[in-house]
Design goal:
2 domains; iron-sulfur; pyruvate-formate lyase- activating enzyme; Elp3/MiaA/NifB-like_rSAM; catalytic activity; 6-stranded parallel sheet; Rossmann fold; 4 iron, 4 sulfur cluster binding; cobalamin binding
Length: 452
């Protein structure tokens, strides 16, 4: 076999699947460059010719010319991944490899729909997997240690339809997170470790990309010394970049100053809850809810937009949490919001805890998309949690509040952050929440008053 034709598929939910003619649905701002798939393709031996198929962008062709099928999935799209895998295996006789978060945490489930399962990261598993495929003796499971990030091959971004994504200029400087938040599958996947690429390799890759960059790191400042070195080295490149990190950056004057000088203009920050009790319960007590307003203000004063992540459904949450959180969001002036229902993903301590308590009533993985309630809350009904989350989103993304945010942002956000992040995110969320029924659901919730 001179060349191995490898088709790597990213399945998605029916709501966002591309039309038959290959026209994407939904706002482009939620479609990032396919960095995990690009990294898998880059790790392949030279005799492997990889084609990446993102179901958000083009429909799956069951008759595709391929020798080997790879499918990567998280929990929410695992049912679709299994459906596609079964079709390729049983209708077309194609060998299928499953990988990603969900197959890593539940390999015995995944192997029922595949010829082999890649457990953990692809880079250390790929060489042996391809050798075994060529020899006709694929093993059921491939497990290797986490990869060393030094010398990683550079992704070939020509493998994706560049204009279908918010930007193709996406990269990672680090992987993983050392913190042990109960609900986080990302930290669990990376064995609660932070690994870093050599700064000079990151700088070399950055120099080859456009001016506007997204770092897809899980927590870019988890290794503070590394972040300091990276930011200092980035300053001469004159880039404008966006990423996600812990809220602690707002309280570290030296680190924040370097981040701004290196071009940081927007951050996704997991605040998670406005109550310290909830944060402690999730092992996220390093966040200090009492400092949130001051931290948002410091980031705004530095010219950095704040994309806030909040989770509803902690054991300490009652129905009043929704109005209290909305009040904080509006008073602090965060620039965009991701609000989700607490979801106990397999592989996390939260899943094990709630499952042991018999509180997980729904194990349809397709519902593990942050848009469904799959467990029994302690101090509110399932319906209250479901509708209350929708209400916060509906109120935050009301037209008048979007307009007010934009007016306020004129005073602290630069043009790049405003036009490339705030405007697309706010309009994109409103479009998405209307399409998936959240705006309508939120209209049917009466928020109890928070205690003074």
């Amino acid at each position: 076999m001179d060349k191995i034709k490898f088709l790597l598929i990213n399945p998605t939910s029916p709501l966002w699947r591309a039309c038959e003619r290959g026209r994407p649905r939904g706002p482009r701002v939620f479609r990032f460059s396919m960095l995990p798939s690009l990294s898998i393709a880059a790790a392949m031996p030279p005799e492997v010719e990889t084609r990446i198929l993102d179901e958000d962008v083009e429909p799956i062709d069951i008759d595709a010319d391929a020798d080997l099928i790879g499918i990567s999935c998280m929990t929410f799209n695992a049912p679709r991944a299994y459906e596609v895998a079964d079709r390729f295996r049983f209708e077309k006789g194609k060998p299928v490899i499953l990988g990603g978060f969900h197959p890593t945490f539940l390999p015995e489930e995944a192997i029922q729909h595949a010829d082999a399962v890649c457990v953990g990261e692809a880079e250390p598993n790929v060489p042996r997997l391809i050798e075994d495929f060529k020899a006709g003796c694929l093993r059921r499971f491939y497990r290797e240690r986490l990869t060393d990030l030094k010398g990683l091959p550079r992704p070939d971004r020509s493998l994706i339809r560049r204009r279908a994504y918010i930007t193709p200029d996406v990269l990672q400087a680090t992987r993983g997170c050392p913190y042990r938040c109960k609900f986080c599958s990302i930290a669990a996947f990376h064995d609660y470790r932070i690994r870093t690429r050599p700064v000079e390799e990151v700088i070399d890759e950055l120099a080859s990309l456009g001016r506007h960059i997204i770092f897809m790191d899980d927590n870019l400042i988890a290794d503070r010394d590394y972040a300091m070195q990276l930011f200092a080295a980035m300053i001469p490149l004159n880039k404008i970049w966006f990423s996600q990190c812990a809220v602690g950056i707002a309280s570290d004057e030296e680190l924040l100053r370097l981040a701004v000088r290196s071009g940081c203009r927007g951050l996704f920050i997991g605040f998670e809850s406005i109550t310290q009790e909830s944060l402690r319960g999730w092992r996220k007590g390093r966040n200090r809810a009492r400092d949130y307003r001051k931290q948002v203000r410091r980031l705004h004063e530095a010219g950095i937009g704040v994309y806030a992540g909040f989770v509803f459904g902690a054991d300490s949450d009652g129905p009043e949490i929704f109005e209290a959180t909305l009040t904080f969001l509006l008073d602090s002036g965060v620039d965009a919001l991701q609000a989700t229902r607490l979801t106990p993903f397999p592989g996390t301590p939260l899943y094990d805890e709630l499952d042991a308590q018999g509180r997980i009533f729904d194990k349809d993985w397709g519902h593990y998309d942050f848009a469904h309630v799959v467990f029994e809350p302690l101090h509110m009904s399932r319906e209250t949690l479901h509708r209350g989350t929708a209400w916060v989103l509906r109120e935050f993304y009301a037209r008048r509040r979007i307009a007010r945010r934009w007016w306020n942002q004129m005073g602290y956000l630069g043009w790049a952050a405003f036009t490339r992040v705030s405007v697309p995110l706010n309009l994109g969320y409103r479009t998405r929440l209307t399409a998936n029924g959240t705006m309508d659901l939120g209209s049917r919730f009466a928020a109890p008053r928070a205690c003074a």
